[in-house]
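--- STAGE predict ---
source: upstream dedup step, 1 unique chain passed
mode: sequence only
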Amino acid sequence: MKFDLETVLFFSLAVMAIGSAIMMITRRSPITSALFLILNFFTVSGLYLLLKAQFIAIIQVLVYMGAIMVLFLFVIMLLNLQDEKKLKEKFTYRKITAVLLSIFLFCLLSFTIYFGFSGKYTAMSDKAVEIGTAEFLGSELFTNFSFPFELASFLLLAAIVGAVVLAKKKFE
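--- STAGE serialize ---
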């Protein structure tokens, strides 16, 4: 493996993405978690840029950070979460066993991915720049993947209707 600027950027963005994801799920304050989620979105967008997927990187910033984060912050403000007293957790054998099994599973998956992909993909394809454009993604999305695209739109529509029904019951 050669250490050029692209490799250093990839590993630094990967470490930042993993660190911000861990910080996001371990913080007690929802606002702090939302800020770490924004950092995670930026780092994932940077990883997409390194993979020459320019369109997905821009959509990551525009859609997720522009729309989804505004929605998250709106829900956080709507719920008006107070500072709750800290709950004391007891460490039981069940929790310790779950943590140890999770670490074991993570190590097993890491070794499987490493040895499964090592040496197979040494160079990026010559068509990588073309594949990352909006024209290519649009043509693929509406020709080869039109049914999964429509299925995802119906799932999102069902989630929106469910959220509206739940919000309406809460305010009545």
